[in-house]
Design a protein that fits this description.
The structure is a single chain. This protein has helices spanning 5-15, 26-41, 46-58, 61-70, 93-112, 114-121, 138-147, 169-174, 177-192, 201-212. With 222 residues, it is mainly alpha-helical. It has one domain.
Length: 222
């Protein structure tokens, strides 16, 4: 695990939504690490990252494109995960977003097989400084693959809508795929934007409860 400013912000944004009374399934943490590992090895255009997150959050490509056309948030660059100012056009975005999804899905192997991790790191001319290595089980691998299933194929037919806006913590605790995708998308978008335009009042309330001390964040327990 390469602890970069980008990963620190991802973990911080996830932490603000969780607490001892509002836990999540381990698949959410692992999905976040798989996503970040992908960007370290294969840096991406910021618009592609935003699109990937928006598909997870909104559940359809049509809504994702509508959101990206309307939002005016400033780009938030990260090194080594992003590739400088965005040069991707919306008309060319679908294919690149599907490609990123396929890369993330492939990164699941990095978390479940040390040999695959070694092969991925061999591409770097200089050794990277890691704070630790995460190795997940084969059961986790199946769950992670299911989280990203469908995103690497036909995005026009992808439908991951949930029918609600706020976080369903009961479903999140059980590892419900739609809920894990939704929260993962939200955390990534919160990281890539200074202020997320589509943030729901339910999510803001949850974060406020945690920040206000009524529900201590998970980071305060360790």
């Amino acid at each position: 695990m390469l602890l970069t400013p980008h990963l620190q912000k991802l973990l911080s944004n996830l932490d603000r939504l969780l607490s001892a009374d509002r836990p999540c399934h381990s698949s959410l943490w692992l999905a976040l690490l798989a996503f970040h590992s992908t960007l370290v090895i294969y840096p991406q255009d910021t618009l592609v990252i935003r699109a990937f997150a928006a598909v997870l959050y909104f559940g359809t490509w049509e809504t994702t494109v509508k959101f990206l056309r309307e939002e005016v948030g400033a780009e938030v660059p990260f090194a080594p995960e992003t590739m400088g100012p965005s040069r991707t056009k919306l008309d060319c975005l679908k294919e690149q977003t599907s490609h990123l999804a396929s890369l993330v899905n492939s990164s699941v192997d990095i978390l479940t097989c040390p040999h695959d991790l070694e092969q991925s790191l061999a591409r770097f001319s200089e050794p990277l400084q890691f704070s630790g290595v995460v190795v997940a089980s084969n059961n986790d691998r199946k769950k992670l693959s299911a989280v990203f299933e469908g995103l690497a194929s036909d995005l026009h037919s992808y439908d991951g809508r949930r029918g609600m806006r706020g976080i369903d913590y009961s479903s999140l605790k059980l590892g419900d795929l739609a809920e894990v995708r939704f929260v993962l998308g939200k955390v990534i978008m919160d990281t890539m934007y200074d202020k997320l335009p589509c943030e729901s009042t339910e999510d803001e309330g949850a974060a406020a409860d945690v920040a206000g001390g009524s529900l201590p964040p998970l980071s305060a327990l360790f």
